[in-house]
Write a structure and sequence with these properties.
The complex is a heterodimer of chains A (224) and B (256).
Chain A: H1 3-9, E1 31-35, H2 51-58, E2 69-73, H3 81-97, E3 101-105, H4 110-123, E4 128-131, E5 145-151, H5 171-180, E6 184-191, H6 202-221
Parallel strand pairs in A: 1-2, 1-3, 3-6, 4-5, 5-6
Helix pairs in contact in A: 2-6, 3-4, 5-6
Chain B: H1 3-8, E1 29-34, H2 49-59, E2 68-73, H3 80-93, E3 97-102, H4 105-114, E4 119-123, H5 129-132, E5 138-143, H6 149-157, E6 162-164, H7 165-169, E7 181-187, H8 209-217, E8 222-229, H9 240-255
Helix pairs in contact in B: 2-9, 3-4, 8-9
Chain lengths: 224, 256
């Protein structure tokens, strides 16, 4: 069996090809990526929950900062919103408590909300949720903890398999904003894309992967 | 629109209720589908456009910046262009803005024949003789270089305002002499197929969809009627061409 076949069939698909790990494996400063399989709670649109799976299958090795791990998917309870939010907040909080940083991938914007609550709870500080697609306040210092919101619905129509609007950001612009947003990024959510699960979705999937890579790099650095 | 069609599409364009023209009030829009097909050529499919636009605007949950009714699709048996002219005239006389979803270019020609005294803003790649010969000058948006010399001569002699796609992309969208009232004709072929594949005309170097939206949106004309033609939705599986038509129409209604 050749290397390519081995990569394709002999490994568990993971975000950016990083090792699969668990909460106990995390050390301070490490980046953990987790999937979020829920798209019916906040700005719902069916299909957004498949982004994590799509990105795992489309990932290649060696694209993420060393030490990054794939934590699997967080447990979700989409039909019980209260239980769902407390569970997701607890799981994200457990990651942040280790001193590691977390990226939540996929689903709707409810993941971002839970992540923001978890960050607030763990740091005890007023953690700002900053969207890269909005005008960013200039009074954020580089050591202020922030949660980065990367809404893939803000991509311009030409990058999408099922565009909903013509104008928007290019992946390159998003990546540039991810790298330059002020603040110390302790968590991020990449969400809002219902990827086409066939060849038509390849462009948006590649764009989302490049964006996820940029997010993990930024999380590793913390400050811009 | 017959009952079978009504059952297939439950809501009208952009969620407007289906209804007769008599239910429209002054200031409303009346959306009318005219699913005519192009005569020939390698690219066809314009007859699918009105229903495709209704479907897409429903999926996108498009909100039209105006009230009104979707009048359904015109029955194309018999003298449909005469019926269309009569309907457009009645609507304009009642203060209702006709938004006509073609169809081929013959749809817009009928709309323009119903409103002979108004200036036309035409977004299309090739200048049409019937537009050049109208009493009022036409404003041309996105003309390409493939015009016959005699048509260029006429456009120049009458000092008509025109911009190429490249000029518009470079930001030269300042049209002089825009009147308060005009008719807007958008032929989707004005867009480069590389950006949006659902046009019946080939137009290499044509406009970008977002440029079309911004140029039309920046015009402060009070549109008396709007016609969209040349859209072949089945040729664009991603739906960018339909999206361009819907966003351009919304921009025109919002700012016009």
């Amino acid at each position: 069996m050749g290397d390519a076949a081995q990569i394709q069939f002999d490994t568990v698909p993971s975000f950016l090809g990083v090792p699969v790990g668990d909460l106990e494996d995390l050390v301070p400063g490490q980046v953990a990526i987790a999937g979020y399989f829920c798209d019916n709670l906040d700005r719902p649109a069916a299909g957004q929950r498949y982004l994590a799976r799509q990105l795992r299958y489309a990932s290649r090795l060696g694209k993420a900062p060393a030490g990054t791990i794939d934590l699997g998917d967080v447990n979700v309870f989409p039909l019980e919103p209260d239980k769902h939010f407390s569970a997701v907040i607890a799981q994200c909080g457990a990651v942040l408590e280790t001193g590691a940083r977390i990226v939540l991938v996929g689903g709707d914007s409810s993941g971002l909300k839970a992540l923001g609550s978890a960050a607030q709870l763990i740091t005890g500080e007023n953690v700002s949720v900053i969207s890269i697609s909005e005008r960013i306040a200039s009074n954020i210092s580089d050591d202020q903890p922030i949660v980065l919101s990367v809404d893939l619905q803000k991509l311009a129509g030409k990058w999408m398999s099922h565009p909903r609007r013509l104008t928007g950001l290019s992946p390159a612009t998003m990546i540039a904003k991810i790298h330059t947003t002020p603040g110390s990024v302790i968590a991020a959510a990449v969400f809002g894309l219902a990827p086409a699960l066939d060849n038509r979705g390849s462009m948006e999937t590649r764009a989302a992967l490049a964006i996820l890579q940029a997010v993990t790099e930024r999380l590793e650095k913390g400050a811009p | 629109m017959n009952n079978a069609q009504r059952r297939l599409i439950t809501a009208g364009y952009a969620g407007l209720p289906f209804g007769e023209f008599s239910k429209c009030e002054a200031g409303d829009v009346g959306v009318l589908g005219v699913p005519s097909e192009v005569d020939g050529g390698p690219r066809s499919g314009t007859s699918l456009a009105p229903d495709a636009l209704r479907r897409m605007s429903g999926q996108l949950e498009t909100i039209l910046p105006a009230n009104g009714r979707d009048l359904g699709n015109l029955d194309l048996s018999g003298d449909w262009s005469g019926v269309l002219m009569q309907l457009v005239t009645q609507m304009v006389d009642s203060g209702v803005k006709p938004v006509v979803l073609g169809g081929a270019s013959d749809v817009a020609s009928a709309v323009l024949r119903a409103l002979p005294d108004l200036l036309v803003v035409a977004a299309m790649p090739r200048a049409r003789g019937d537009l050049i010969e109208r009493a009022e000058n036409t404003v041309w948006v996105g003309l390409n270089g493939g015009q016959p010399a005699e048509e260029w001569d006429q456009i120049s002699q009458r000092a008509m305002d025109w911009r190429t796609a490249r000029q518009l992309d470079e930001g030269h969208a300042d049209f002089s002499g825009m009147p308060e009232r005009a008719v807007l004709w958008i032929d989707i072929s004005v867009i480069d197929l590389g950006h949006a594949a659902g046009a019946v005309g080939l137009n290499p170097g044509g406009m970008k969809p977002e440029t079309l939206v911004s140029v039309i949106g920046a015009m402060s004309c009070n549109w008396q009627a709007i016609a969209i033609t040349g859209l072949a939705p089945a040729r664009d599986t991603r739906g960018i061409s339909e999206l361009a038509a819907i966003e351009t129409l919304n921009a025109a209604l919002r700012h016009g």
